[in-house]
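Field reference: sequence -> structure
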Amino acid sequence: MKASVFIGTSLDGFIARVNGDLDFLPPGGGELHGYDEFMATVDALVIGRKTFETVLTFDTWPYGEKPVFVLSENTLAPAPPRAVVERMSGDPAEIVSQLDARGIQHIYVDGGITIQRFLQAGLIQRIIITRVPVLIGDGVPLFGTLPRDVPLRHVATRHYPSGLVRSEYYVAG
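Structure field:
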């Protein structure tokens, strides 16, 4: 199974403010920068509970009818109409095994802790980071402590008129 990350960060590497706010990100995701094309390639999403709760505050559900698996031991808040949401728990390898058994071939992994856990487990193959031209000084880092270096192979970088810069990497080892 393929697992990819598509995420926006401040230039100093934060995915949210300390309090979880995303107000430094462009409204509505900003200009088109490959999200729709990326979403067309994934079968399902695996996100953490905090990310799920944040997404519930958005004006619209950004995942359409793609299945969203929320990693949590607790009961989830109600999902919006037509959203396909299921709670799962377990370590990343167990999650991948369960989803693979369902025929899911490509997952989009989202949420800071979830991304970190999947990366530490060696289960992420592709990382797409869109940097927003703002420094916020402190917040939730995209990458946490790693038990070893994770070598990456740069695939492409593209810049946009608003100042967004999207870089894509494959995990090399």
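Note: The mean pLDDT is 93.
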